[in-house]
Write the structure tokens for this entry.
Amino acid sequence: MIILFVGLIVIAVAATGCKSGKTVTGQEPAAEAVATDTTLAANADNPFFKPYGTAFNVPPFDRIKTEHFLPAIEEGIRREQAEVDAIVADRKKPTFENTVAALDHAGIFLSEVNSVFGSYQGALTNKDIQALASQTAPMLAAHRDNIALNEKLFARVKAVYDQRATLGLGREELFLLETTYKDFVRGGALLDAAQKARFRELNQELALLSVKFGNNVLAETNAFQLLIDNKADLAGLPPSVVDMAAATAKQAGIEGKWLFTIQVPSMTPFLTYSERRPLRERLHRAYFMKGDNGNEADNKENVRKIAALRLERAKLLGYPSHAAYVLELNMAKTPEKVTSFLAELWQPTLAKSKEEAAALQALMDRDPRAGKGQLASWDWWYYTEKLRQQKYALDDAALRPYFKLDNVRDGVFALCGKLYGLKFIERPDLPRYHPEVQVFEVQEADGRHTGVVYLDFHPRPGKRSGAWSGGFRRAYYEKGVRVPPISSIVCNFTRPTADAPALLSTDEVETFFHEFGHTLATLFSQGRFRGRTVARDSVELPSQIMEHWAFEPELLAVYAKHYRTGETIPKALVDKLEASRLFNQGFITAEYLAASILDMDWHTAPDPGSVDVRTFEKDALDTIGLIPGIQPRYRSTYFSHIFSGGYSAGYYAYIWSEVLDCDAYEAFQEKGIFDRATAESFRKNVLEPFGTEDPMAQYVRFRGAQPKIDGLLRNRGLVIKK
Ligand SMILES: [Zn+2]
């Protein structure tokens, strides 16, 4: 048994913006705002400049146009700066209320605009939005620096911080004070003038590079098409997959052909079923070569530059590496701790994935269509599916009819009802940013309003790949009254076809449960302040614990109904699902750990600016002995989590959090998986105060002890040899 968390520590989120980090939102009605008359007159048509006038004060998406963002962002920057200036100009002696709490309350208007703009960047982008992001990213970075490097403001914060022991502050107040102070120090407040100037330049450049990186990944994802016009090339594909490809072609304006893309819901079924090995190779190669094609969307230079500039920034602040800078605030604390944690898991994972590869190779050797050759990454899904059918007589196509999207969604709602008493009421009358988006009001058991959730399920050319939970407003208190949150979930799930509704893969089902866990943390959030500081490596606890319920027989009985007959998923199928739970875990864990290790390598490298990206990556993967049949889940040139998201030196956080969620779920298993008292305790001790204090203290209050790694090992079928 390994105890992971010995001296553990608090907090934090990387300085680069991220989905579940400290990006707080809220709407300040224009009536109370401090805009000048001329500004208001010039923006009379801009919906950001007046009260929204919508139910629950949701953003008026039906009235927001691209040209509204720039003036609103500029106004938001101006207002927040004015709020900060007012704090600095206060003649009264600095106190917690007039300085730290006042700062927490500044910038509501900007947060509100940014949350909408951020969601357009992720889910509704186009050339205009991208150009605007490139224009505003450096403006916003400069604005953040103007606050972080404001010496008079820092002096006030420091004055309060220095007296913290004698102020009699509550737990939440003290935590906000400590994290605010630390944010300043990490934001360069202790640097001299020349260093501060360079620090600003670095943030500017990094902000731009990160936007560029993300745009390139999207461009590369959209650029590739595998168009099939010959029926024979559809060999092996089940009818549902063929229909989906026909629908994709039709959407692209091509009738009578079949289109596959490197969006995951299109690519994975092709890799799973296609008998045409050269076509599988073409598709998968296009996927894992994204950003590495030597064209104008190539990201190699961006990767090098980002890693080098982050290192320079870390050194300026006195850290040996960007990883050391990031991890100081995480539960893990140091790069060494993360590296040894990953190494410990890597050995049993590699052994397991080698066993899996050998079994797949044996199948391939017996396949007359395969020809001679070594199992490659584009073969893995195909032979894994064959093996799954052999071993468990279970195939993805037989399961999907029981996972109609609407039923899965209602299953998630039912789970939230059983655990927390929540009710979900669809509100088609509320404005949405795209006609496909669904909107729900969430209520407590007694009918009190909890918040609003936006659900955006299917891929579109303007949507970033993957799935995430974001939102338009975080809960906070305004003069003692709770401002309810607005959360959103954005996915890239299988689309409906002409003949069938959207039928999800088990991966997609799990993803939906996952993202909904983030949303629950947003909905339940209770805390006086807008600022939340969540340790990156604890942020997946609320989300990953939800995955444990997804395929529990007791819950499947509630939601997994055949989309045509309404028949509940048969017990035989549930048993097979359970029996195959650990199947392919070596692969899943290996591709994930390889990406996590690559992330740590980039952010601890002594001179990343001068390396050759391909060589660097190859060396990293050779060192750990990754086998040829497996690619890391993300290669460097499209690793958006770490190069354009908030997960740099933090991709390991998912499996670190898994130690917590596996241990926490065992509390439910001990009492019954729908036990209301356990759920209430989880809500009160973990979800409601999430990000308002040390995560381990919260966890121990829920569980009565620190988590053990045993649950994680069992969950993945790994055995660590002592
Ligand atoms: Zn997550």
The pocket of zinc ion is lined by residues 514, 518, 540, 543 (CB under 6 Å). The radius of gyration is 25 Å. The longest helix spans residues 193-223.
